[in-house]
């Protein structure tokens, strides 16, 4: 039994094109719609709000730097996906300013099997809100998602819900569909560890009691032929992310995206007094890690379960790092899944995944593939 | 990971978690910050702190942080493990349940902490590195508890202080400032007024007929009315003005900054008073009934030349309230439902009133009153009855007219004893002269019953007891009440009158036409006679309007089989007018002035 009723892609990023796609999609009788769009959609504003008001089924989604349709990377377009199972969309607004502890995050139903989270990537306190979500879900609930926005990194509406477009918000999409996650990045330690002794949420101010940007530039320049004075910061930084060493020997990646007078700004929070590594990447290892994670997940599926359609939230900076080879990553992931399975998704600014230890994290430079689980009996039907 | 990196990692975990202990003095927040950090740094699914608490039966009452710790199979199991762990003499313990490892650590003198790790256990070396942290956490928990205890103590002390302040300065029923608070506010207002050159005002507001509502409908209705009135009065004033409740039905309002000259202050105060009087235009809806009420408001402006500079601020405040009270008293005893500004003449009247009240006590104690009798005649001028009238000559004040001392007696409550004195002496006179009645010289002698006397709890029994002391026929007496007395509460009035009528003791309605003039109740009240008010009688021969009214009253009285009595006939022309109107009796100076008792006795005895 398919999880997607239909998938519609158009390269024309207008509300009119969206309306036409969704109109065609509606003939498949979806119970909900996932909508992924590229940059231009961020300026739809009131036109989108007026259109969505008339829509009869719940919708959710966001604006992302690129889209994934099977093994294709689409830098521009609208991807509308019809969902066969019920969904419930809720929005938490103003998350940068309201303390996560003062907001009651609760799910509407106990029969929820998964929660897809989409969040404005430029918001603060994302991790605090993720921990609140974690607190409200049952042990067997699957959580995944990604950060929305554009590579321009300036605040703008980037999330879609039945209420319209949102900025500085988090979407919680409750689903009855069961998913298994495959999380992989393939980055390796280059240097470190360094003590992040002074931090402000997603800004590293000091490393080893030294100005963070100076230490970072010095170490990276030692290992690379590139000089920060001659290149745009992110052009070099996308190749040398930070890694947070965890006790289970996994490493959570943090992308340094900007440098300002106060320090290095990362896509995702850095805990104060944590130990950081500077990482390096190798194209083949990155691609193998992403596709290998999918293979492991498939192996671990129990015999009564089969895989249905898939969603991939792949980090935009992987695409920036891999360039032309990014398509190879998609092809290998799709090949692991099987060409007859539909794979849709987007390039995101931070990937969200609940790992098998029950820890919900915002990752960077990581590929999160969600594989819909279809029980054998459903498949027969 | 190299050996060095591993060592650094452990040191960094220890350092990082240690830096997250004691970041807040609030226990919840402090633990929340530590637990959040521990969860992240140690890759935990869950971290919970349990505080030791007494355990009763099977109920687990370990306190958990965070507080919304859910009760389910795993959590209940965990609580049980923690409870058992607390009894053991060991600092750490690990349980494996399903895919999870549960690590329990003691927090000395506080409780325990539980870490849940899925799939992979925590390295022993890391566990050992954690142990010193819980010693630190214990100290921090104790510090938070001490801090909280201190905060609670301060809060309690503040709450008690606030309660004491309220008890001292607030009226419990309405929540308004009481007299003490009012006095403080007024004094500070007076100081400010002197500095700023602005006028202010003190309103003395009295709720008319409140006692009657309280007595007849119960105290709960009275209380509800006061609360309702309070909220309505508040709508008439500004936030900075002080409205205080200073007695059962008495409020005092302080207005500040109402103008820089007296005229604008008067205009402003008048506006506020008008607004207050508007409240009583319609009935006030309470939970189980609706009541009509009205206000009598006395207003004193300040600064005032009368408040001499020699007076202290406290004395000035007292004087101002007294002035407003005097003005209120005046309006209450003239029209009610109105307001009056204080003038110096009122103070003079008030002083006189005070002397009257003082001397009345002496007069009553020393029996210094005398009784006069004014005969009533028939149309032919033949004496048929008399009205007993009290007179008072005081050695200090001289002759004090009833119009001056009766209201004071009524207000002070002395009227009840005075009324009984009049009744007793009249009965005594009747007892001494039964033959007047036996021989048909007089039909009755009437005595006046005051509103206060009439509303006494045991009025009927009291009256009967006094009359029976003298063993006289009840029909020799007639009780006069005014319309107002009957109308205060017509149901009660009817019941009292019926009770006395059953003992052959009847009523005459005095001053008919001067008050409510409602003809509709005439047939409801068990009356024997009505006495037409003297205001209609004066120069009736010249007033066509009065003639119409009087003839209508006579006609209606006849219709209801009531005897009609006329008072205030002073001229030949007035007498002539009534000669053919079929009235039962006429009273007035044209025939007789009120006679001292001896003269009256002689007059009646002389009749053959």
From TrEMBL, chain A:
Signal peptide: none annotated. Pfam families: FIST, FIST_C. Residues 212-355 form the FIST C-domain domain. Residues 29-211 form the FIST domain. This is Histidine kinase. It comes from Paraglaciecola polaris LMG 21857.
From TrEMBL, chain B:
The gene is gmr. This is Cyclic di-GMP phosphodiesterase Gmr. It holds the Pfam family GGDEF. Gene3D superfamilies: 3.30.70.270, EAL domain. Residues 198-344 form the GGDEF domain. Residues 353-608 form the EAL domain.
